Amino acid sequence: MLIEYVGVKEINGSLIVMDGVTGVSNEEIVDIKLDNGTVRQGRVVQIEGERIVVQVFEGTRNISLSNTKTVLTGHPMEQPLSPEIIGRVLDGAGRPIDGLGEIFPEKRANINGTPINPVSRVYPTNYINTGISTIDTLMTLIRGQKLPIFSGSGMKHNDLAVQIVRQAKISGANANNFCVVFAAMGVQKDVAEYFRKSFEDSGVLSRVVMLLNLSNDPIIERTLTPRCALTIAEYLAFELDMHVLVIMTDMTSYAEALREFSSSKGEIPGRKGYPGYLYSDLASLYERAGMIKGHSGSVTQIPILTMPNDDITHPIPDLTGYITEGQITLDRTLQGQGFYPPVSVLPSLSRLMKDGIGEGFTRADHQPLANQLFASYAKVIDARSLASVIGEEELSPIDKKYIEFGKLFEGRFVNQGFNENRSIEESLDLGWELLSTLPRSELDRVDDELLDKFYNPQN
Amino acid sequence: MENNVIYGINGPVVTVQGPTDFEMMEMVYVGKDNLVGEIIGITSELTTIQVYEETTGLKPGDPIRGTGAPMNVLLGPGIIDNIFDGIERPLKAIEEQSGAFISRGSQVNSLDDTRLWNVTLKVKVGDTVKGGQIYATLPETPIIEHRLMVPPAISGKITMVKPDGEYKLFDVIATVEDDLGNQHNLTLCQKWPIRTSRPIADRLSTSVPLITGQRVIDTMFPVAKGGAAAIPGGFGTGKTMTQHQLAKWCDADIIVYVGCGERGNEMSQVLEEFSELIDPKSNRPMTDRTVLIANTSNMPVAAREASIYTGITLAEYYRDMGYHVAIMADSTSRWAEALREISGRLEEMPAEEGFPAYLPSRLAEFYERAGRVDTLSGSQGSVTIIGAVSPQGSDFSEPVTQNTKRFTRCFWALDKSLAYARHYPAINWMDSYSEYFNDIDPWFIENTGEDFVEYRNRISALLQEESSLMEIVKLIGADVLPDDQKLVIEIARVIRVGFLQQNAFHADDTFVPLEKQKLMMKVILHLYDKSKEIIAESIPISKITELGLFEKLNKMKYDIPNNRLEMFDDYIDDINNKLSTIM
Question: Of the candidates A115, A367, A445, which has its C-beta nearest B298's C-beta?
Fold first, then answer.
């Protein structure tokens, strides 16, 4: 029996408070019918006896104290799932908006998911070849990893994400079991369109599920978008055994939506006004990447976030970095010098890299080479800061060599074309070629055996 | 039976209206799924419960059942080589029950109660026993003997003893009659509340170091057995890596590894690596001495708060048997954030950065459970705490780092710029400290010789000197320094690259015995002393650097295997010979 509750008691931001409600469960979804015929959805976020607080996804505009009829649906927020979902375009709450009709669900799943049991996880060791030298050599992406791109407004993170999708070769994946779930949160229409067009150009559009919560869409819906996307990704990976790449952009908008919701609920704020549970909340998204025993599929995440004011210590990149398995950091100075992709090598990292490279995966010299490149490039930065004080002319001969190496490294190794797809061998060989411009005695991270084989200053 | 039902729900916090007979910190079952919770506040109008599982779907009116006892863990054989969540539920058993995703309200026994253990009884009828006394032993793993102890509150005469043989967890193998004539059954297990520390006979001084095989820790910043150390560092600086290295190589008998609010893939890595790694001392897999507690960041936040206490209680239980236990908590900041999150739900008045005002006292309670002790059973044991701290924004002035500093005596500060240059372990030698030197130096002098301490002091003086010289170099370049100062910079570079930097993936370098650490220091200082003599003769330093000795020492950690320490003599000879050519 459905009971309609007429009217609300309080309206505050995106929240409405109702009284006298019985039989309601926590996190339950409610349908709110307005007198003008529109129907909105909301979620129960707090219960106190018969008084409940409901978060309205579409916002509370036009709602008055008396013009609504509310019905409890009896279930938490669920995402309809079916194999036909691939290739569809959905709104931020997982409802189709491409005019192709409803999804006929084979099953429905709670969008909050449940945590993967740590003992059921498979430790990811298969690398993904992205064809980008910096990423493949120095911060290798691993299947089942969550590797965010830390960027800033106006930087080329979208291009980089598109290039990764286009060039990514996952071992064991082919056109039949590879797909992309793309979640746009608070991005502009033309950015979403850019992604759609790029997917089309590279021929993967039919294998993409797009969830679009654009910048003018309701903010509360935005807090659902990544959850719907990941529920779809988990279904595709762990029930249909597909390799799923999830791109979520922009996590900063998501966190801001969360802050807005939190403050309208009157919660005690943590750092910079973000709710105290921001870490747990982000973790409940990022931790849904991985592989599990008994299934060949995988969920790999590339969240993109624009660091406010390029500040890596801002709570959003900070907490993200503590959860994700490394990060790809972009740098404005490199972009200013015209280098693409502007990957800032030193603060970038892939934690899962060490077990997915080397003999049997890429090449035996990969790890020592990467260590040496990092160490040598760190010295370039030291030499540059010295040069900025005493002038390049006054540097010692060895520091001058480092300055030279730095130019080559940025100009040839970091810099590569948007359409340039470098094989892992090409990237590694290029690394050795550049290291060979330094004196052999400076290469203290590689042993003599490798140096004999690869160190060749004649090149 | 009291009829308690849910009144309000807000995230993981559930309230009950009206007066109840629950006790503070009592463990309760919430709702129809029997979710585990704990009473955290009582007034005459409202009782507040913190629920350790996802509260989606709970309804007002759902029942709440009390257990009459505080949140406790089951202690007995089967803990080692197991992996638990934050409230001691075995994750493997949960996997069998509900598959790869953790469902709510999983009712599984903490320990396997069907497995038979080969028990040897140590008491006979008529013996007087007191709390903490060992009444039976059994082999828990091939290297760990599990000693069953009379629960601390029980003492009296043994009135019944079963013969040696195979028993299950809940089998009664002895009974004790106390002074009042009450009978107490002794099984293979007992319960203990996680927030109460287990009693001891006496605390001992922390005079023995925990040997880790990591050069920067053992020589520069050692921690004592029974001490507490903090590893703060921003993301990507290698906290987890350092914790893993310590868990693998430190010379504790038992390791409790608490993954508190960290990554799931990391825990599966630990599981995989530890079962493959062979402990060189016992020739058994590392898992034979390891307990894992995995409450990953997406598992319920309240259980994350409890996981630290669960871990330390398990550690204390094995300490009481007379073992040296090391507990790695990764990361205590996540635990502090769980406190903050729950405190926020309770609408408590926040102190610094939104953390509750009781954060320092909670941290102190936790770290004070470390210590080297005389146990009630008359043996000696210790619990060493190594807590990782993840400072927000890599800023060490934030409340968790600052308060942790107050309660730990060893501080291994991880440095972002070292990590960027891939200098691991990225422990900054200028910011880190250990206050245990006075306590454990006598041990070093006795076991490694007078010179170990002397070398260490000279090494750290050289690093200190380098650091002040680098201030000048940063301003005007290295060329203007006189040769003797250039030598300091060169030798400090050898200390940094050749000695402090350690390769966790290299077969020999991942664990280095103290003797090799000492000889490495000796060779480095020998080169320094000899070169200094030469420079005093006005021979330019470039002559020395051309000899390739510095490079050779940088690589000696790889070139000299851990079992061929006599090779160091060749190094000394080589230095003498080469340097004599330019004299």
Answer: A115
Q: How many CB atoms lie within 10 A of CB B302?
A: 28
Cis peptide bond upstream of A250, omega within 30: yes
Nearest CA in chain B to A291: B265
pLDDT in tens, B132-151: 999 999 999 999 999 999 99
A290 → closest Cβ in B17, B265, B350 = B265
Degrees (nearest 5) of the Cα angle B356, B360, B364?
Answer: 140
Predicted ipTM of the assembly:
0.85
Q: Between the CA of residue A28 and those of A31, A46, A75, A119, B195, what are the distances in Å? A: 10, 10, 5, 30, 34
Under 8 Å between Cβ of A428 and A355? no
Q: Which residue of chain A is at minimal alpha-carbon distance from B478?
A: A396
Helix (H) or strand (E) holding A345: strand A343-350
User: How far is it, in rounded angstroms, from Cα B291 to Cα B278?
Assistant: 16
Distance CA B305, CA B329 (A): 12
**How far from each other are the two terminal CA atoms of chain A, in whole angstroms?**
81
Q: If we measure between CA atoms, which residue out of A242, A241, A235, A294 comes closest to residue A107?
A: A235
Tokens, residue B505: 């993936």
Range list of β-strands (E), B312-400: 324-330, 371-374, 380-389
Q: How far apart are CA B293 and CA B245, in angstroms?
A: 17
* DSSP, res B496: I
Partner-chain contact B60 A394, CB within 8 Å: no
Chain B positions in Cβ-Cβ contact with residue A396 (cut-off 8 Å): 477-479
All residues at 6 or more sequence positions from A61 whose CB lies less than 8 Å from its CB, including other chains: none
For A108, A174, A181, A207, B216, the CA distances from A87, given in Å and listed in that order, are 19, 16, 9, 5, 54
Query: Residue B3 is encoded by which pair of tokens?
Result: 């009829």
- Residue numbers in B near A141 (CB within 8 A): none
pTM of the predicted structure, to 2 decimals: 0.90
Taking only the tens place, the pLDDT of each residue in A93-132 is 899 998 898 999 999 999 988 899 999 999 998 888 999 9
Residue A320 corresponds to which amino acid? T
